């Protein structure tokens, strides 16, 4: 009998902490935008391009990293990637040239592109027989970091100005040091190495299912990234204070983190397709409920919409890994990376809509997109739930 692999909880904790910081940095630029617009009269389109530059570089490179990491682990990617992104973003508040800002945003994105596939693989390696639940926890920590970003960064920029970005390199240095000393070693990261022809065969065999999954993720990512970009500008135009705006964005994102955990649990019991379709279809009316009500009821609608939008976040990653089970890092790169990058690229169009027809119109378009993603999710393969598979295996 094969000995049971121990679960390295301390390593998982450090990797999850690093993911929380990494995704907090990933939501860095949207928090800067209202201050950049006030200081430089940046157009909505240019603001969207700045966020898209980071999203595209952080996303499109991930499948490449994923493919090579399926072949051979490179532990240095997690600590160097974290430090690189922290340094690049800490410089953004010190420059005034727009093209240089776009360059820094693009370079910063490479750091998170290096971190995510390797860190996800590390979690799988040290999680013993609890890989699914611990990977979901790792992803949830990232979503919490995303949610904390407006609470931490907006007061910093409002109090000390954009030049305070230089101080945000400090947590990146500390977490990079933790990863340098405590991330799993290269000699435990190897595995069965698929050849390029085997990878291409897997992609060809599952092409229809992967097309549906990546389309759903791209549209959801467009709605998600678009809201992160446009909502702070929209709240600013509504004369809402930066602090109040940051609280609303935090509510949406933190609810999304909780929704992601619940979504993983529900999909295990009732099936991934059912969870993905129903949650996305429900998101659109919830967002419209937020925009057409006031007070506490409006905040409740926003929280429910955030939870519904992100409840399928980790579920779609698992769905892609089930479609190409021998290429899990590549699947993670395609879903968390490439598909998300497509959505990030299209945010530029949303920014242009905001310039031409107003921010309210751009927000309304973003609210409608999850419904479109939910309809496309109907074309996904309907696999048995994890609960049903466990029962059948008894």
Automatic annotation (TrEMBL):
<feature type="transmembrane region" description="Helical">
    <location>
        <begin position="274"/>
        <end position="290"/>
    </location>
</feature>
<feature type="transmembrane region" description="Helical">
    <location>
        <begin position="247"/>
        <end position="267"/>
    </location>
</feature>
<dbReference type="InterPro" id="IPR005829">
    <property type="entry name" value="Sugar_transporter_CS"/>
</dbReference>
<protein>
    <submittedName>
        <fullName>MFS transporter</fullName>
    </submittedName>
</protein>
<dbReference type="InterPro" id="IPR020846">
    <property type="entry name" value="MFS_dom"/>
</dbReference>
<feature type="transmembrane region" description="Helical">
    <location>
        <begin position="296"/>
        <end position="318"/>
    </location>
</feature>
<keyword id="KW-0812">Transmembrane</keyword>
<feature type="transmembrane region" description="Helical">
    <location>
        <begin position="48"/>
        <end position="69"/>
    </location>
</feature>
<keyword id="KW-0813">Transport</keyword>
<feature type="transmembrane region" description="Helical">
    <location>
        <begin position="160"/>
        <end position="182"/>
    </location>
</feature>
<dbReference type="InterPro" id="IPR011701">
    <property type="entry name" value="MFS"/>
</dbReference>
<feature type="transmembrane region" description="Helical">
    <location>
        <begin position="356"/>
        <end position="380"/>
    </location>
</feature>
<keyword id="KW-0472">Membrane</keyword>
<feature type="domain" description="Major facilitator superfamily (MFS) profile">
    <location>
        <begin position="11"/>
        <end position="385"/>
    </location>
</feature>
<keyword id="KW-1133">Transmembrane helix</keyword>
<feature type="transmembrane region" description="Helical">
    <location>
        <begin position="330"/>
        <end position="350"/>
    </location>
</feature>
<feature type="transmembrane region" description="Helical">
    <location>
        <begin position="210"/>
        <end position="235"/>
    </location>
</feature>
<feature type="transmembrane region" description="Helical">
    <location>
        <begin position="132"/>
        <end position="154"/>
    </location>
</feature>
<dbReference type="Pfam" id="PF07690">
    <property type="entry name" value="MFS_1"/>
</dbReference>
<dbReference type="InterPro" id="IPR036259">
    <property type="entry name" value="MFS_trans_sf"/>
</dbReference>
